[in-house]
Amino acid sequence: MKTDTRRAIEREPAFSFLTDREIQCLQLVAEGKRLDDAANVLIMSREEVDMMLLSAQAKLEASNLMHAVSLAMLIGLIDHSDPHQPK
């Protein structure tokens, strides 16, 4: 499945259809967390985190998880600032 990134960014915001948990899971992946670590942070099972990420990926019409994270960053759904960089 190929996603037109421009269409994904300009269409009706996909994030209005994403749950808070899906957004939290995408944010943790963007921060470099492994699924097990994300599950521990969110007090969920690894399987639940995986399901949240797959659901978010489908809603964003992303071809893979990294594409979903990239789209989420582009549309301002998740923060992509580096917490280790000085402000």
UniProtKB/TrEMBL annotation:
<dbReference type="InterPro" id="IPR036388">
    <property type="entry name" value="WH-like_DNA-bd_sf"/>
</dbReference>
<keyword id="KW-0238">DNA-binding</keyword>
<dbReference type="InterPro" id="IPR016032">
    <property type="entry name" value="Sig_transdc_resp-reg_C-effctor"/>
</dbReference>
<feature type="domain" description="HTH luxR-type">
    <location>
        <begin position="15"/>
        <end position="72"/>
    </location>
</feature>
<dbReference type="InterPro" id="IPR000792">
    <property type="entry name" value="Tscrpt_reg_LuxR_C"/>
</dbReference>
<dbReference type="Pfam" id="PF00196">
    <property type="entry name" value="GerE"/>
</dbReference>
<dbReference type="GO" id="GO:0003677">
    <property type="term" value="F:DNA binding"/>
</dbReference>
<protein>
    <submittedName>
        <fullName>DNA-binding CsgD family transcriptional regulator</fullName>
    </submittedName>
</protein>
